[in-house]
């Protein structure tokens, strides 16, 4: 894997790895959909201009399907969870055993937010004056109703469209939107092998970042940054061997692990490769031992296959390929939903913090397989703008990687706002995912 990449080898090395897998890999990993050789630059204003942020609110956030929560966040009738996007409050509720609804989370009297926190209730009663609505959004009670002749007997909460996919609950604020299935499209086929619905949310951590939401998510949409930002991973990660694909409104990167980056100019041992992936430090013993004569990628796959067998069974675990167990299979569905494929367990979501163009929220969910009764979903643990990712010990070794990532982001925002440059430049291949989603963004917004 010391080959130098150029335009003729893009994606080919990853397919070569699949050829040598210990099992026949899913057809979906054999798909290749390169975006093409076109270069891209975008105006800095997409990250710094409040007017562009306002256009995103009106033409994207108020129009597009977006993931609001998991179904297991609201398992029982009356369970509800607030979702906020760019200052717009939505309340998602299980209104009946098999029905999930969503409403604008606002009292129709004076505009007070109805529910600020997740919980369970028999009604939605405004804390200000006590006007109440039923779980299905219908009006229940108006104190001193005689004093509101202009209020009709039917005064329902404004409804919001709801759809579910693979255990996720999506909402859409546009009453005339196309069905969620149209938005999901071919992504459903990609995840047919990987049942995300039969998982539970074991961890959910969010953090406020000092940067535009697109800057935040774009930092997690390419492996090009690994050589400078995460050099400790290079011995065991094929960052430059990543296959990138664009499928219209979603894109993916397939990054192999258990191989060495083409940036590395020395020959790490198989043990050093796996130590890099497991974040082993010099003061601790090997977390996974590579026996003499064996390959780190094979050993890593067998280690993860054995762990997976404890929840899905030995027979099913034995069907899972090395690539599915080892590699970072990362999808991005426009505008801000990032589910990982196979049993990698990670899901990202990025969105503006409040209605600010220069602040954002990054969230990481860990979806675990389970056997027996579905465990209770973990609540969101929010970290403030000055909190450290290591405060979220639930994320394990991800915290160090996240700290390296987000350290750059406020400085990028500051640089863009300085006025020194007018355009942001994207690599034609290694930043394929960013280019793909940027194209989709402008399809929704229209030319500037």
Q: How would you describe what is shown here?
A:
There is one protein chain. This protein has 448 residues and is of the alpha+beta class. It folds into two domains: 12-50 and 194-445, Naphthalene 1,2-dioxygenase Alpha Subunit, Chain A, domain 1 (Alpha-Beta Complex); 66-176, Rieske Iron-sulfur Protein (3-layer Sandwich). Helix content is 26%, strand content 24%.
How far do the termini sit from each other? 43 Å
| Name of the top-level CATH class of the largest domain | Alpha Beta
Kindly report the spatial arrangement of strands forming the biggest sheet: 2-11-10-5-4-3-6
Mean pLDDT: 95
Count of domains: 2
Shape: globular
CATH topology of the largest domain: Naphthalene 1,2-dioxygenase Alpha Subunit, Chain A, domain 1
The structural class is alpha+beta
What key attributes describe this structure?
448 residues, alpha+beta, Naphthalene 1,2-dioxygenase Alpha Subunit, Chain A, domain 1, Rieske Iron-sulfur Protein, seven-stranded antiparallel β-sheet, five-stranded mixed β-sheet
């Amino acid at each position: 894997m010391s080959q130098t990449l150029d335009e003729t080898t893009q994606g080919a090395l990853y397919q070569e790895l699949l050829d040598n897998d210990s099992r026949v890999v899913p057809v979906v990993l054999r798909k290749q959909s390169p975006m093409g050789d076109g270069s891209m630059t975008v105006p800095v204003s997409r990250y710094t201009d409040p007017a562009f942020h306002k256009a995103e609110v009106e033409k994207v956030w108020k129009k597009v399907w977006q993931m609001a929560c998991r179904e297991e966040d609201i398992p029982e009738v009356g369970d509800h969870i607030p979702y906020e996007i760019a200052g717009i409050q939505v309340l998602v509720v299980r209104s009946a055993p098999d029905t999930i609804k969503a409403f604008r989370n606002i009292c129709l009297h004076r505009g007070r937010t109805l529910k600020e926190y997740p919980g369970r209730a028999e009604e939605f009663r405004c804390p200000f004056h006590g006007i109440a609505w039923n779980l299905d959004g219908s009006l229940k009670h108006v104190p001193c109703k005689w004093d509101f002749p202009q209020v009709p007997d039917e005064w329902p909460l404004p409804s919001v469209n709801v759809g579910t996919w693979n255990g996720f609950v999506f909402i859409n604020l546009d009453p005339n939107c196309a069905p969620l299935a149209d938005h999901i499209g071919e992504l459903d086929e990609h995840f047919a092998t990987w049942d995300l619905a039969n998982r539970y949310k074991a961890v959910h951590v969010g953090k406020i970042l000092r940067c535009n939401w697109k800057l935040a998510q774009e930092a997690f949409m390419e492996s090009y940054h690994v050589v400078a930002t995460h050099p400790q991973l290079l011995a065991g990660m094929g960052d430059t061997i990543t296959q990138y694909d664009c499928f219209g409104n979603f894109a993916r990167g397939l990054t192999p692990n258990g191989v060495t980056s083409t940036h590395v100019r020395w020959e790490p041992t198989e043990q050093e490769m796996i130590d890099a992936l497991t974040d082993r430090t010099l003061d601790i013993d090997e977390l996974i031992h590579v026996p003499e004569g064996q390959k780190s990628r094979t050993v890593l796959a067998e280690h993860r296959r054995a762990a997976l067998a404890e929840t899905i069974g030995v027979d099913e675990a034995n069907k899972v390929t090395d690539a599915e167990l080892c590699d970072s299979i990362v999808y991005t569905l426009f505008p801000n939903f990032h589910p990982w494929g196979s049993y990698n367990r990670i899901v990202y979501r990025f969105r503006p913090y409040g209605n600010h163009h220069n602040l954002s929220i990054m969230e990481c969910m860990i979806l675990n397989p389970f056997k027996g009764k579905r465990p209770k979903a973990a609540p969101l643990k929010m970290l403030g703008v000055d909190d450290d990712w290591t405060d979220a010990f639930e994320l394990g070794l991800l915290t160090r990687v996240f700290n390296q990532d987000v350290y750059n982001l406020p400085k990028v925002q500051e640089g863009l706002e300085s006025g020194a440059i007018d355009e942001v430049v994207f690599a034609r291949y290694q930043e394929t995912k960013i280019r793909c989603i940027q194209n989709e963004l402008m399809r929704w917004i229209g030319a500037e």
